[in-house]
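Table S5 (text form). Sequence records supplied for joint modeling of the two-component complex.
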Amino acid sequence: MNEVIKLLKSHRSIRKFGDQPIAPEILDELLTAGQAAATSSFIEASTVIRVCNPETRQKLVEYSGGQHYVASAAEFLVFCADLSRAGMCCDMQNVEQEKGFTEHFIIATVDVALMAQNVTIAAESLGLGICYIGGLRNNPQGVSELLDLPDQVYPVFGYCLGYPDQDVDLRPRLPLAVVLKQERYNTKGDQDAITGYDKIVEQYYEKRLGGGKSMTWSKQVAGLAGKEARPHMLPYLQSKGFLKR
Amino acid sequence: MNEVIKLLKSHRSIRKFGDQPIAPEILDELLTAGQAAATSSFIEASTVIRVCNPETRQKLVEYSGGQHYVASAAEFLVFCADLSRAGMCCDMQNVEQEKGFTEHFIIATVDVALMAQNVTIAAESLGLGICYIGGLRNNPQGVSELLDLPDQVYPVFGYCLGYPDQDVDLRPRLPLAVVLKQERYNTKGDQDAITGYDKIVEQYYEKRLGGGKSMTWSKQVAGLAGKEARPHMLPYLQSKGFLKR
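The corresponding structure-token record, covering 490 residues in total, follows.
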């Protein structure tokens, strides 16, 4: 295992940050490393909004369901999927933009995630810590108004960045055999493997939360998949010109 | 710039691979490094299908629009967004799965992209090369049948992996100022910056393709955004239980 793979395997989300600011040239370096990730058909559909203003940060804490580290992290970035820039290209070339295709939505969303993950690796290689904030999708309309997001742009996730002020245990992961299938999709052995994994996750939570609460992986996932999830997302996205066809 | 950031910035897609196979323990290592990426709400919604069978590979070449490296790469992986496993968790917990939420689709798609990008960095740190194959979405129904993908699973992209047998120039990227906005979304200066970038991209293509064909970035992006894009994706995804609400 080389140093890079060791670094990748040491990822954990950080939610408590020290006061130390990040030098502007380091932030630029991280984002440039992010841009180097693959981009579908060279579309470069990511836009990152750097939010420093404390009032805006505070609103974003609120919109993301009270995650205070959105305010306290040295940097807070909003990673947006951006097809509006492609629209500018269409204007420059006197071409009518074809909007609303699900395929374009996927392309832009994947572009953003690939870029952000590169930023993550670059940040962690410098001793920084990060946390993805999917919670921004609690109130994407509020975020859009706050950050002036135009049509064809949506906030995929927020992103806290700073020097860690906590030590966090590695979270377990599913056995590779569950995630990696040979030749075809099949679920042979998965339920047994998940039952075994449930015990590992239960121990992890016991250690982390100090007994009392018993939580397994399948229980947590069933809790998520068994209830409605941000039902405003589809109407919101359609209002922004996405996912119409 | 440290070695990790140097590695990130040296990414290029590889489409010509040597014959050298990848040792199974290395492949496992790459995928385990992939699993270490962040996962939304701990859902672990990625499934990777490793395709070795030459006939299956050949079909996938066809489905992805004739990209021959899908057959010739040492390894070909299909990265799937998988909410079917969450359904198994619901069954194990006697909970009814709530299907079709756009939010769950985003969570699973982002999960896959974060994992894949980790695999990419791990692979490149070992001198391997990769290429994302969005072209699998040309025929997602064919891919689904070929690989027995059940409801609640879709192929986000394919993935070629192997030892590079070509030297590829770095592709340019947009000036950071276009991609990184301060405090709020705005497009001030973007069109001028894109006009400048167009010249850089034009030179890149001239060098790569040896004159004759003149292609700028805005022209290429307008070509993509100005025409319909895989209009089958929405009905296909809905047929798999995604994006219904």
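Note: Chain B touches chain A through 116 residues (CB under 8 Å).
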